[in-house]
Amino acid sequence: xxxxxxxxxxxxxxxxxxxxxxxxxxxxxxxxxxxxxxxxxxxxxxxxxxxxxxxxxxxxxxxxxxxxxxxxxxxxxxxxxxxxxxxxxxxxxxxxxxxxxxxxxxxxxxxxxxxxxxxxxxxxxxxxxxxxxxxxxxxxxxxxxxxxxxxxxxxxxxxxxxxxxxxxxxxxxxxxxxxxxxxxxxxxxxxxxxxxxxxxxxxxxxxxxxxxxxxxxxxxxxxxxxxxxxxxxxxxxxxxxxxxxxxxxxxxxxxxxxxxxxxxxxxxxxxxxxxxxxxxxxxxxxxxxxxxxxxxxxxxxxxxxxxxxxxxxxxxxxxxxxxxxxxxxxxxxxxxxxxxxxxxxxxxxxxxxxxxxxxxxxxxxxxxxxxxxxxxxxxxxxxxxxxxxxxxxxxxxxxxxxxxxxxxxxxxxxxxxxxxxxxxxxxxxxxxxxxxxxxxxxxxxxxxxxxxx
Amino acid sequence: xxxxxxxxxxxxxxxxxxxxxxxxxxxxxxxxxxxxxxxxxxxxxxxxxxxxxxxxxxxxxxxxxxxxxxxxxxxxxxxxxxxxxxxxxxxxxxxxxxxxxxxxxxxxxxxxxxxxxxxxxxxxxxxxxxxxxxxxxxxxxxxxxxxxxxxxxxxxxxxxxxxxxxxxxxxxxxxxxxxxxxxxxxxxxxxxxxxxxxxxxxxxxxxxxxxxxxxxxxxxxxxxxxxxxxxxxxxxxxxxxxxxxxxxxxxxxxxxxxxxxxxxxxxxxxxxxxxxxxxxxxxxxxxxxxxxxxxxxxxxxxxxxxxxxxxxxxxxxxxxxxxxxxxxxxxxxxxxxxxxxxxxxxxxxxxxxxxxxxxxxxxxxxxxxxxxxxxxxxxxxxxxxxxxxxxxxxxxxxxxxxxxxxxxxxxxxxxxxxxxxxxxxxxxxxxxxxxxxxxxxxxxxxxxxxxxx
Lengths: 453, 453
What we know:
2 copies of one chain form a homodimer. By secondary structure, chain A is of the alpha/beta class. Chain A has 12 helices and 23 strands.
């Protein structure tokens, strides 16, 4: 951090203009263009932004990219306050007052920029570059960082979970207070669940964070999400894998959700991540920067010696959603392909059509583990109520309790890399390890839906 | 309806006791047993209930089955008011004052009884027997009924959708004011969507209704749900396919959800059905029996001549949920099996891993229609934001807009039975027919989640 070049990233005519008005990174400037007035702090510009783009941090905390082509006026409102970007944080870091947080970059929208030329969004920023948008993080923690992957999270696989788990374990062994993982939101909850099983008895929280709009966009949520994530990593009393993202569309607080109980529930809202069959463990107030616990039901930080790293996953596990008329040959196909586990996302309390029973029987006879979850998402599997459920239990299908289908899928991948003994697999799948299973389902864990005033 | 036998269903010793205190069906009686007091209206007992079971309708509206074995006291509180069960409704019916509602039974929990001997729940009641638990329906409408199927809804297929659609169309042609379909809840939303596409320009609402606890149980929600459904069928100004079920866990109101925008969201709660990317069209206040519209955005009842019945569905359509590392050979398998359509339940805005692109390309080249939806459920597909989305669009994947994966699956099954011309299929899939697609996504259509006070 810190800018040796006071106009970092700006070149050509735009750089000349900025220099002529006495602006440097951190200066407050005002731009009038096309009848609009923009006022904010001049931010460094990164490689992928077009040369004519000027990046301003507005007072509402968002960065905006302004295309400086055509008629416009630029004025200096106030010179840069060097202090904000360099002096205090580094001084604090030197005297060791602050907690240590390690940020691992894996890609995703939070690490993406819009190529202004093509309009495409690409995960091309290093963690250091992301940090440029939230310099105030240096007041909260000593930040170390490393970019280990640059992928969109739809391309995440269990192989990547293993790489991330191994990296995270190394970082935690180095004695940090918390780890933040910048990750694409599409499959963030799957990765969070994977890490929760792969690294247990955590001495430090692992906080996954992402963004719904890329970090160079005016409306990016990356800055606040990162701030919430770093505060959580630095200060939380729990040793759990959590997801820290906006709690509402507005910038009031960051919700901290338990990874194994969380789902991406909206394609575009900032508060897309929500706890299912659980409540968030904590929230971070974005005005006071305070972490507030919402529950005292969490796994506390453990000693480093207790940490248990088992970073392997079985890739031959499938998640199959059930629907009316589903062809049982889909299950036969997985058996033929030597799959080791199948998680069914059944209907209601854990059902599938009668025509699928022979294929399920064959799968189990051939040693494949079959776990039942529900596409309702909320609530709990109960295969004792109806005849179909009892038939499935009799065949050996394992009830997934109140686990999300996604979490059951990740857990089965993990369990099958630990043991392939069917009795042990059944025991592990039905035993709560990291609060992925609630012993008793709390009926009130259902959001409030709009049904008129 | 009406009871020729004043102690319908009761036999043996229990019948003798009831006779001795002067009780008949409809009488108010009080039972003391094991330190508990039960007071309510004596209801008819059906074949599957054990011989010792006495069925009481409590003042809270629920029926309770009391095992009359062992020490107990039974008292008559008030004689049956004949009027409630017979006189007024049939008088009204004769003079044609009331709307006509036709109830079609298809099975499910609402038509189920617990076999007290084994504890198993079976869909064995006829519609007439279900109606016995809500005699007050006869004050609301002239009820005709027919049991056309007796299955649990996890066994529902597109073939059954066709049978139901044809039956419903016949019933509507007979001039009823509304149709109620008793249906299992597991796949009720799929069937509702199927009927919404199969019968368009409806002159009468089609109201699906079910129960989360079987109709002979103390805690059944069947009675109130049926009441809400019959009121909706009789009085609603809309000609849409809707789902009428509890709006809350308590018995305050029945929410009336648009079938194509509704999902079963909880394995066991009464208010399991919820609108996604939409709000309920109406609710029925259970105290006043009034239907209140929550929106004026609905398809009005049309003239009978305008009704358009197209009850065919293509069975070779699959719904495939995407997850990290999903094997592209699953798509190849569906191509090999001569599937005609695949709905992907992708991640985020509509993504799948890069490794799946060749299999999707091959599917589309072989004439298979591929539609993208999101496992987020809320929000809208947008494949223009990221490179992966653009690649998928370039291959010919059809964006599912803000349709639920389940609705897109049903719609594609229906569309492919109307035309197999790819351009026409694309046009129909991306065109709103019955409010399954919102022209503009309303960002506020997201429930309120609990994040602390």
